[in-house]
Amino acid sequence: MAKKKGTNSNPSSSKNSELPKPHPALKRLERLVGTWKLTGRTFDSRADNIRGKVTIEWLPGGFFLQLRVTIRMEGLEVQSLEIVGYDAKAKNFSANVFSNMDGAPAKYYWQVKGDRVTHWTKGSRYTGTFSKEGQMLSGGWRPEKGQKDTAGSAYDAVMTRVKVNKG
Fold first, then answer.
1. Domain-located, residue 132
2. What is the pTM of this model?
3. How many domains are contained in the chain?
């Protein structure tokens, strides 16, 4: 009898048919999961002039984190979808951001160590810190050395968790 392609006729070899598991490093991103209210201000403002909502959740399987972002800044509404995964060879979290501001995906990177969160792309970097209870993330975007300050690369923001999303 010919063995069907794609089947395993040996019941004792179930180990070979187990689904892969997400890399343990992905657990460091768990603190980001939830729905967040974002407020902030550009350096030239005395009052908050940035508002938004960020929803962060695991995609099925737990290999990727999805961020859906809507931010209103200086008369513009920016919407984006960001997909974050772990690159075991490079030992970093890399992401692709798809937004209504550009037709090409933008490459970003993440690092979460303890209470410290770093998120960056070419030209600018976000550094933030979780509150003790983990319900707020405060920080700011700064241009890299030699880069010009722009509203999108130089502002402070606070994210306040408004909902815990179960993954």
1. yes
2. 0.84
3. 1
